[in-house]
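Subject: Interface between my chains keeps coming out wrong

I've been trying for a while to get a sensible model of this assembly. When I model each chain on its own everything looks fine, but I need the whole thing in one frame so I can look at the contacts. Pasting all components below, labels as-is. Any help appreciated, I'm running out of ideas.
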Amino acid sequence: MTTGSQTEFETVIGLEVHVQLSTQTKMFCGCRNVFGSAPNTNVCPVCMGLPGSLPVVNREALRYAVRIGLALNCEINRYIKFDRKNYYYPDCPKNYQISQFDMPICYGGHLHIPVGDGQLKKIGITRAHLEEDAGKLVHAEDASLVDFNRTGTPLLEIVSEPDLRDPQEAYDYLQNLKLAISYLDVSDCDMEKGSLRCDANVSIRPAGSTAFGTKTELKNMNSFKAVRAALEYEISRQHKVVLAGEEVIQETRLWDENKLRTASMRSKEEAHDYRYFPDPDLVPFTLADSEIEAARTALPELPEAKFQRFLKDYALTEYDAGIIIQDRGMADFFESCAGIFDDYKKICNWLNGSVLQAINERKTTIAQLDISPEKLTDLIKKVDDGTISNLVAKDVFLKMLDSGKDASAIIEEEGLAQVSDEGELEGIVDALVTDNPQVVEQIQSGQEKAIGFLVGQAMKKTQGKANPKMIRELITRRLSNG
Amino acid sequence: MSIITDHDVRYVAALARIHLKEEEVGQLQNDLEKIIGYINKLKELDVSAVEPTSHALSLENVFRPDEVKPSLAHDKALAIAIEQRDGAFKVPKVIE
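Reply #2:
Try treating it as a single job with all components included. I did that and got this:
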């Protein structure tokens, strides 16, 4: 059933993602490229735009850009230049930003997003160009304060085609874009630190129309969820505007995370007239085919391919594989484990369970966690052969992380091995039967479930060490013998 | 033969943050007319066989390695600030 206005419109979304490249130094000068320094401590005449200073391209930033471009299935331009984008704003000390206008380093790429039922949709990437980041502005009551530490940080701006049709697609695109880039060791991709930022262009048009409606540009979203929420709000706002017989105004709107709405920016920045022209301070550069091919060969297996391979080679579920590949380190760890122990599902359960939980709680990474594939599979084997229960294993795992010891040592030192000695367990069962006459009566009158209570008591008495299967058998045998 | 209008002069002046006196607008209109006229003269040349150039020097691929160089001392960097606060350059408020 389709009713109401929502179905009469189609949404068109395009995203601009800025990725800060994690080079040691800035794009055009040797100042350190780090987050969190005291204001204006990583600045020099070049990034402050002082007269007489000259920018020189950071070779590494160029390599990073090519690496990202190739991972996003882009063509790489062989001849590239930088241009000046002119604008007056206090975050930009030169009054122009060095960017790339008509010869971006990467163009014509794409990325896939899931659209249900295992189907993928191809989202075009128009271009990705190198540029320098602007400074940071803090707006006080009476003034704006400028910190130029970020000025000149290498950025790759990745522009999607207007192929996204709803906020969820935009969200999925961002997830997959971030995931692909995170495999390349070229950026933190940390939205909280601003090393990954996203602006969204959105418009609506009558369903079936091919012309674009007037778009608004949304800024100030601090998470992918915020991008999705801002788009949802903005689409509904545009619907209302159009249905009221008014026109959508082309403008920049800021997302307000507290009020959960977008509002016109009303900045004092002049109307956009960037007057791009080639930067005379920077000579053009060329990339050799051999260099690009070498970069292509050096690419790691990308998440999409890894996901498919994990389904095929390890028969993982889409759910399990989907979690494992979210982190390249985790995926590598999984494969190392799989080389030692062949119950892949059990490895997955551990990684996506206790291991992931420990990583999140300790705000760390799999690489920094004191656990190796050998140690983890060793622990899983201890559960498999009945040495310890799964419950005890979870505890042993945490003790392994804290002490760096292996599972056997902890099990031995703390006497955690399951008690499977029949004589010892019989003694425990005898005591329980004596102490719980009512429960025994219930069991004998056919209430099988009451056995569970006695098993639980046995586990409690032995701090989880009793072999629960044997306890159950012993109780049943004991009571049926009268 | 007015290619440059009074409005063009004021617009370009605004983009360049130049404050013009009234009498300067007419004067600049004349100057810009002459410059654009000269460019139009150049446009008569047939350059269809010439590669566009973005740079006068025949230099390419000038790079630097990704190595940290000392930055300016903080007080030196801020010495040029007209006003400062909390280690930052203080400027008139730019957002409402």
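Reply #3:
Confirming on my end. The CA atoms of residues 251 and 482 of chain A lie 85 Å apart.
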